[in-house]
Amino acid sequence: MAFFTAASKADFQHQLQAALAQHISEQALPQVALFAEQFFGIISLDELTQRRLSDLAGCTLSAWRLLERFDHTESQVRVYNPDYERHGWQSTHTAVEVLHHDLPFLVDSVRTELNRRGYSIHTLQTTVLSVRRGSKGELLEILPKGTQGEGIQQESLMYLEIDRCANAAELNVLSKELEQVLGEVRVAVADFEPMKAKVQQLLESIDASPFGIDGEEKAEIKNFLEWLVGNHFTFLGYEEFVVRDEADGGHIEYDASSFLGLTKLLRAGLTADDLRIEDYAVSYLREPTVLSFAKAAHPSRVHRPAYPDYVSIRQIDADGKVVKECRFMGLYTSSVYGESVRVIPYIRRKVAEIERRSGFQAKAHLGKELAQVVEVLPRDDLFQTPVDELFSTVMSIVQIQERNKIRVFLRKDPYGRFCYCLAYVPRDIYSTEVRQKIQQVLMDRLKASDCEFWTFFSESVLARVQLILRVDPKNRLDIDPLQLEKEVVQACRSWQDDYSSLVVESFGEAHGTNVLADFPKGFPAGYRERFAAHSAVVDMQHLLSLTEANPLVMSFYQPLGQVSGQRELHCKLYHADTPLALSDVLPILENLGLRVLGEFPYRLRHANGREFWIHDFAFIAAEGVNLDIQQLNDTLQDAFVHIVHGDAENDAFNRLVLTAGLPWRDVALLRAYARYLKQIRLGFDLGYIASTLNNHTDIARELTRLFKTRFYLARKLNADDLEDKQQRLEQAILTALDDVQVLNEDRILRRYLDLIKATLRTNFYQTDANGQNKSYFSFKFDPRAIPELPKPVPKFEIFVYSPRVEGVHLRFGNVARGGLRWSDREEDFRTEVLGLVKAQQVKNSVIVPVGAKGGFLPRRLPLGGSRDEIAAEGIACYRIFISGLLDITDNLKDGALVPPANVVRHDGDDPYLVVAADKGTATFSDIANGIAIDYGFWLGDAFASGGSAGYDHKKMGITAKGAWVGVQRHFRERGINVQEDSITVVGIGDMAGDVFGNGLLMSDKLQLVAAFNHLHIFIDPNPNPATSFVERQRMFELPRSAWSDYDTSIMSEGGGIFSRSAKSIAISPQMKERFDIQADKLTPTELLNALLKAPVDLLWNGGIGTYVKASTESHADVGDKANDALRVNGNELRCKVVGEGGNLGMTQLGRVEFGLNGGGSNTDFIDNAGGVDCSDHEVNIKILLNEVVQAGDMTDKQRNQLLASMTDEVGSLVLGNNYKQTQALSLAARRAYERAAEYKRLMSDLESRGKLDRAIEYLPTEEQLTERASAGKGLTRPELSVLISYSKIDLKEALLKSLVPDDEYLTRDMETAFPPSLVAKFGEAMRRHRLKREIVSTQIANDLVNHMGITFVQRLKESTGMSPANVAGAYVIVRDIFHLPHWFRQIEALDHQVSADVQLELMDELMRLGRRATRWFLRSRRNEQDAGRDTAHFGPHLAALGLKLDELLEGPTREGWQTRYQAYTEAGVPELLARMVAGTTHLYTLLPIIEAADVTGHDAAEVAKAYFAVGSALDLPWYLQQISDLPVANNWQAQAREAFRDDVDWQQRAITISVLQMADAPQDMEARVALWLEQHQDMADRWRAMMVEIRAAVGTDYAMYAVANRELLDLALSGQSGLQPA
Q: pTM for the complete prediction?
């Protein structure tokens, strides 16, 4: 960073002067300024501004002080650490100041010394000053730069800043050494000229030499010496010496007088050892060579830091003996290294000789190659190497040119002090690292103490390294150059080379080369440092094994150098494309029980750009876990990989992999059971369950073993062995449990044992099409074997588990149906499903199957995903869930049962499984059917109703229409016709919904004043019914819509569409008036609360959520947190009617409270049964038609067309059921108070048989009923709804177990379950329907309860002691002989024509007829019921006599009948119907009449006349009426009353028969009866007297009637000497 700014150097000088002015006198300033200008002369402005101005001024003054006094003969050196206190300025570096008279080499030498000592130079300022000094060396004046002249001295000033050295001794040493170096420079420079003169002397001595030298050579030597002097050699020293022999060598004897330059310093004080030379050096020095070259043993400290060169001239006598050697020491100047070898004397001769010997043409390729090699060969080699050796080296170099291999050439110095090495290395592998490796090998092998190197690059593919190694001449090393070269090659083999050859070796050449090419950059440096090449090959194999299916591989290893006892482990993870995030991996490893100590990621790039990652982890196992790396590699690796892929969850259960040695799937099995435990509300969180298992790993292992035995080994064992094995395992677990100290842990482990024993089937050992394990588990439980299961307890339950989705499917019987809900309640989706299945169970009373319900919870929905992404994941989860159900369900093939593959069954055959999409669409059903068809499931596309080849509930609007039937009835009974009269509606839902959308299109007279869903509140206080209907229709038809799509321009004043997230909503006057709100402003929640309480006609629920509870319930009881704030109580509702299209909109107690306050509602399961009813019709039709298709009598396409063509027929069948069922509820509600006792008895009976739990169904207790009775109230409609369902369910079950469904005649009832068009075509196939018995039972039970009432079977069972099946059989006879359905239809046709009350009264009469007639059949045909026969017999007689009532009735009886029927006709009832209903009592009497006709053989009409005549004569109709009017206080009285009536009937019949059998009696019946009475005068009189008493009696007394009946019996018996009571 810059400490100050200056515009230019001049500006800087100006600022500097200002700073200096503060420290020096004014006179001195110009001199100092001149000095400063020269001092900072060459330093750039940039560099200066990096320092503080005050520090620059300080160092200027410091240098100035150095100048003030100076002795020219000495050098002045200061080395110090500037600081403020002592020097007035500071620097972070050490300052070095040197002042010396100007000489060459000063700066180089100082710099060389500092570098040699390892100091970095940060600043270097040097200047040569022109100065004048006084006699004592004091500074007189500084002159401008370069001034020459007398008395002017040139002085060199150097200022350097170097790495700081804190140590005072170090500063001292440095200062001394620098002075020494400067001394050496002075000596060398002083003797420079004498040394050059010496050369001249030697030139002359060569000419005078007695030794014969070849003339050409002599000339070349002389040329060389002259060339040397010609500025090609920096002379540093000169010496002369002779060699003296001694044992094993010799020593050098110097002539001290000859020393010049540095030699004077270097040769002082040498020891004998220093002078000694080896024998080979002696022989070299004795060679008669005039000119020779060598290297000095110590690097130069002057000028350049190189080993100086020796140039020796030997003086040789005539015999060729060396007399003495004259030796120059110095450095070749840099120009020598740049000059061509062809101009350097002496060398050029060697070069020419080499070229001659090579025989290469100068212009040919090799000639050029040779010339190039020689030109760039190090000059040292050219000077020092003898021609022969040089030739062989050069030729070898020429041969290796352009070949990518390493070559090494070694040459020894004749004195034995140096080895010279030339190493050729391919450029692409050359690096500092490679050079260091070569250096290391050479130094080791040659035992060198020092090494210098120079690297040379050219266009060649090879780089050349020249190395000079300092060796000890005493070490006689015998080096094999080839061996050395091999070692160098081996050392230079990079990691990459090793790796490449190993890859080729491991993968084979072709594949190996491809692998290397695929990863051109190889492994990163960090990896190469930590791992050997062979590890890399293994890792590469792992990387190449990565596939789409297997995107992660893991391998464990123990580092080689690990001390035993260390518990550290490593593992590598291999992964493609993206690195594994540490935050993802760490929790997984931690949960597996491993503590991670470190992680190193390495990235490899494939040539195609794809990335591969290797993560190296170091970890130790958590406490108390013993690791066996081999076992780890398999089990743990497997577990880890599956957890990362998401096949297994990442939680504390995974520790079992290490603690219990369990494979990941066994751990997942235990986890799955734990997650089920959570759903069944065991009350412990998963973490606690996991730690329990980890605390008792032995038990955990045994549990998995028990599971394996039950479901895997069981395939191979016979029943006894299996039982035995299970017993033993169970015993072992129970024994181990005794040692578990913690009560909660004991409870968890026992529950595990219970669950495994309660598991009936599982797909755990079932594989998919590819033979792989499935990614999900499903378990079928026997819920009754699971203790403390929340009620109600289903018959079967399937739990599907995977990390992606969980789900349950609860079934209450073998044939059960219900939708599958996509739940969002992670904590308790089973509780939600349990609530739904309870409703489903009662809802299904109208159809064949009993209740079932499923729910699945997607656990990995994309966070922040779009609607489509979420839907896609939901569908994927739905698929898994459906597959899980089908995996373990039996199939039917050609009528035979086929168990699922690889599934051990611990239960019986169970092939009926159907589903539907709850809140879903046709798509969901199609998906489910697709899966079922893939599985070859027998139901095919009947498996899930509502698919594209099924009945689309939304399109049909069937659920809404069904609920609307209920709404119409409620309003009809209040005198309103919702199709004609306008009613106000508040709705829950939006037009996109099935139930809401269809519901609000049921009438164009509706005024939808408000509605809301989870997003918006719609308010239209005074809508126009017609235009708003059209707009609703438009929205319904949009693919997706919300309230915000509503056209607000057609809304009435004061309305609007508001967001539920708004802070507050202003309440308009119109809203206040319409909804009776006082406030001006409400929050959305408060407004919704007000809307629910609004005084409107209808509250229509087509949404999700529970909005109404009872005041006695808390919000928590409801279990729908989201709506707590807006929920209201049943007694706060001010609407007249609630239509429950959606499920669970009100709690049952909320409905009851609403009902007790006069509100009209049924229950959700009554109102919206249309959907499930439609689905069941679809399934039953498909089962029928699929058989036809399979038989080849129809194609799939024809089947689908037929199905579609029957849509309306199916719809009307369904709505018929809704209509009938709500009608039955109205009939029941009408008499609920009077009939309270019957209901009590029904509930008690169901409870005693374990069929009903009053608390679960929120039915009132006995006390509550008594309390209600005192207020004049009985059961409410919602409660009767529950009972009507239960009575149907109970009857269905009873019929299924009986022979009723097998009775030829009764079986005809199944036809009512199918569209008439289908019955006509496929009547035969229908009789073979797979569910024939179930359908017959369902149809009869529905028909009976709908028409005869909820308690009908119960009453008749009690009064006759017959079974429900007998009752039903008798009912069918009665129904058919009296054509009751026909008359019911006649009454139903009067909707909106007569008042609802009249309709119900008419129906009541028909019910009474049915009840009495059924009882009559039960009593008179106790053991010989035969529906077909009895119907055929009684039917025609009844039809004939029924029309003749007019003729048959007489007297007061006839009058009573006429009055009744006239009253009906006045109320608007058609005549025929009125006559029929008014005469029900008499129609009933036709039964005993027909029977009497059978006994007597008389014509039935005659018998009827006699019968009615007897009645009139004895006043029996009046008497019967008295009995019927008896009040009933308890069941005994009720039974007594029935008995009385039966007795009267029997006795009247007996008397009639007796009258008819009189001999010689008149034909006229009245006369005949009169005659009979005369014949039995006494008895008749007694009876008449009795009648008079009864008429006079006050109050009613059962005893009185008992006596009267006895009298009548006596009368009858008196006429029946031959007849006994039947």
A: 0.69
